[in-house]
Amino acid sequence: MSRQLQLRHLVGQRIAKKRKETKLFQKDVAKHLNLCTEGYARYERGDSSPDIELLDQLAKVFQCSITELIVETSVGLSAQAQHIANLLEGVSSSDRGEIVKIVESICALSHKKQKKLPPPL
């Protein structure tokens, strides 16, 4: 499968996930976008790639950023860091500080756990 096709499917999965999180049906989202249900379903299946205008409309329907619809598809460290930064938008600086401390604790536990695991064969 080509990289472009993989990305199209990953974005489709993200769109479907956001739709389900907002408890909407495909027909509801299609109506918001002035599409037929099948036309919208093609985006969720990854059969079609949404353009930036459609991504903007989807973000409004799902009350999220366009970034959330596309960046989280990556498991790369920088994409995940961007996702965390997006989640922290609008959070007070003192609360962000507390959240960072929690994340640091979780990471420390994970590193400790990794050191205790036997090496792979």
Structure at a glance:
The chain is mostly helical and 121 residues long. The protein has helices at residues 3-21, 26-32, 37-45, 52-62, 66-70, 77-88, 93-116.
Care to describe what's here?
The chain is 72% helix and 0% strand. With 121 residues, the protein is an all-alpha fold.
CA distance, first residue to last residue: 30 Å
The biggest sheet amounts to: none
Please state the structural category.
mainly alpha
Count the strands? 0
User: How would the global form be characterised?
Assistant: extended
Order of helices and strands: HHHHHHH
Helix percentage? over 70%
Q: How many helix segments?
A: 7
Key attributes of the depicted protein:
7 helices; mainly alpha; 121 residues
Summarize the SSE layout with pairings.
Blueprint: H1 3-21, H2 26-32, H3 37-45, H4 52-62, H5 66-70, H6 77-88, H7 93-116
Helix pairs in contact: 1-3, 2-3
